[in-house]
Amino acid sequence: MRLSRLRALLVAASLLAAVPAAAAAQYPLVPTPVLPLGTLSSSIKVGGYVSVRDTKHGDSTAFSVNRARLTAMIAPLPYLAVRVQADFSGNQSATVSDNTVHGFELTDAYVELAQPAADSLKWGQWHPALIVGQFKQPFSLEYLTSFAYLRTANRAAAIDALTPKRDIGAMAQMQWSKYVTADASVTNGQGANALSNSNGLELLIGRVTVTPFPWLALAAKLGNEGTDHIKGYDGRIEWHDLLIEGEGIHRSRPLSGEHQDAGGGYVLGAYKILPWLQPVFKREWFSDTRQVEGTNTNTQQDWSTFGVNFITPKENLRFLTNWIIKSQRPTRTQNEVDFQLVANF
Q1: Are the CB atoms for 206 and 222 separated by under 8 Å?
Q2: What is residue 274's DSSP assignment?
Q3: Which of 29, 94, 129, 330 could crosslink 173 through cysteines, CB 3.0-4.6 Å?
Q4: 98 - beta bridge partners?
């Protein structure tokens, strides 16, 4: 069974190698949901990616199509852009248990108003933009970075558990030259595809990124929704073939009849030894304290990921191998091995 799944990955790799190359690598120094109008036109631009994964966790093994994203973007006017993205993967998993298929899911759907690419003289060094709809909230560095181009098969546990993700609302961005980017958003706080606001409160987020050098970005961010408070910091270095980044996050909030006080983060380093070969190391940590009627329970996680990425020149195809060593308290968990193939088009 194990060999057949590995064989399936190799067959998929050979088929997907023929996929047209993505326009450019999408691992930016300062990731943002704001669309670059200069790359769009009045014709619909279609793209996306497919990700398949084989995971061994203890005695269990699962093969899944964990992402199948299709994106359409268009700029009908010089100052207006539209982005729509959907996931068709259904999270289907070939395991011994029955599959749970979630089917079609809308991920992004927003309209952007921004300074036209040809109108730089009017605004000078300022580059304003406004987004309305459903989008990635401007908080986490790792979450803002597209899953299609991540250097490990998984995002950090603290990022998955604590960061605000996609939501419905509005976001404004102001970029001064190439040195400062300020983002602010107001959203429902209920998550993606939730049209109603059950608690009547909006989630407010602010993020400021400074880029003192073309290869360095440092950011601080804050979020607030009533008694839900979140803060963090992050940084990314892209120097030739070297990538170093890290992120820290802390969140305090009421959660399902209890109070959560949690924090964590990660550091990651990667280096392209060859144009197609990139070893990766990632260290992450996560501490989650829950309080119920004066009683505290705490969960600690410390994970180390050793990986190797095999990448085509324009990153239209990437094969990731990850060995994740897991330390967790008070309950123990088993180590994990992931093989993931991502094709961008």
Answers
A1: yes
A2: B
A3: 129
A4: none
Going from the N-terminus, what domains does the chain have, and what CATH number goes with each? 2-344 (2.40.160.10)
- Which residue matches tokens 């939501």? 167
pTM of the model: 0.88
Q: Which residues pair with 323 in a beta bridge?
A: 306, 337
- Amino acid (one-letter) located at 141: L
Question: How confident is the chain (345 residues) per 10-residue block, as mean pLDDT?
Answer: 47 45 67 93 95 89 92 96 93 42 82 81 77 98 97 97 97 93 96 89 97 97 97 97 98 93 98 97 97 90 98 93 95 93 96
CA distance 126 to 140: 24
pLDDT at 22: 43
What is the residue whose two structure tokens read 């050098």? Answer: 213
Backbone Cα Rg of the chain = 21
CA dist 277 and 275 (Å) reads 6
Instruction: Classify residue 64 as left (phi > 0), alpha (psi -120 to 50) or beta.
Output: beta
Q: What is the pLDDT of residue 98?
A: 39
According to the model, what pLDDT value does residue 99 have?
A: 39
Task: Tell me the C-alpha distance between 2 and 8, whole Å.
Answer: 10
Cβ-contact 290, 259 below 8 angstroms: yes
